[in-house]
Amino acid sequence: MIDYEGIHHVSLVIRDLERSKAFYTEVLGLKELERPPFDFEGAWFAVAEGGQQLHLIVHQGQTLRDGKIDSRDGHLALRVSSYEGTRKWLEEKGIHCDARPHAKAGFPQIYILDPDCNIIELNAAVYDG
Asked: Mind telling me which residue stretches traverse the membrane in this protein (predicted)?
């Protein structure tokens, strides 16, 4: 049996490093971490406390997404403390979102796309709107 301690990191493929770094720091508010000197471009970010990380990897290959939000496609889900505060922040930043305050999942969800059409779910424990 495997004894898990948690998720260390999730990696997403991106095409434009500077554009993506701006999105993940300025829109999502993640803190960039120091990254080893790999022979390919990328960036690492801290996600909350506890050592969880998001790694961005520059790769020019194809993706399966066409710019539409499909919550059944592969995605990164991050828990936020305030659903309504997050929704308002995204609105202020001009980010299109698929807001689901009363989602069938049993907790409120917001889906957005990053600049490379990676799907990000932002969810909260309760609806606070």
From this structure: none
Please state the pTM of the whole predicted model.
Answer: 0.88
Cα separation, 15 vs 61, in Å, equals 9
Per-residue model confidence as pLDDT tens for the chain (129 residues): 877 788 899 999 999 999 999 999 999 999 999 999 999 999 999 998 889 999 999 988 776 677 888 887 889 999 999 999 999 999 999 999 999 999 999 999 999 999 999 999 999 999 999
Find out whether 11 and 56 touch, Cβ atoms under 8 Å.
yes
What element of type H or E holds 35?
none
Same domain, 22 and 50: yes
Same domain, yes or no: 54 and 80? no
Structural domain range at position 29: 9-58
Sheet of strand 42-46: strand arrangement: 9-14, 53-58, 42-46, 31-33
